[in-house]
Amino acid sequence: MQSPRNNRSFTQLMAFDIEPQWLQALVTALSEQTERLARDHKGFLSASIQASEDGRRVLNYLQWQTREAGEAAFRSFESGEQDFWRLIQAHRAKAVTFGSFQVLHNIERSLDNALHCQLVD
């Protein structure tokens, strides 16, 4: 039996293909935009910006309490003062891939070094 969708957190993943000389500028811009989204939108859980070792790929991972929270934040990202499409153009991304995911299983290490596994209902 499947669980109701609204009990699961929601993840947005954006992968950027860029030239290495644009890496730091893109990471800075994504960091600023992610901080704005986290501050201005309810339902934010976490985010991560990661770069490949060769500097040609950047991943931006945002996790939200609900799909609705994530989609509302992304709509503002698309049309806000710091327009997402201008961000892509300014940092000369060759390709951008978007993905949306529901979290089904989490494994985390706590401060006391114990592993906690959670199947999300």
Automatic annotation (TrEMBL):
<keyword id="KW-0560">Oxidoreductase</keyword>
<dbReference type="InterPro" id="IPR007138">
    <property type="entry name" value="ABM_dom"/>
</dbReference>
<keyword id="KW-0503">Monooxygenase</keyword>
<protein>
    <submittedName>
        <fullName>Antibiotic biosynthesis monooxygenase</fullName>
    </submittedName>
</protein>
<dbReference type="Pfam" id="PF03992">
    <property type="entry name" value="ABM"/>
</dbReference>
<dbReference type="InterPro" id="IPR011008">
    <property type="entry name" value="Dimeric_a/b-barrel"/>
</dbReference>
<feature type="domain" description="ABM">
    <location>
        <begin position="10"/>
        <end position="76"/>
    </location>
</feature>
<dbReference type="GO" id="GO:0004497">
    <property type="term" value="F:monooxygenase activity"/>
</dbReference>
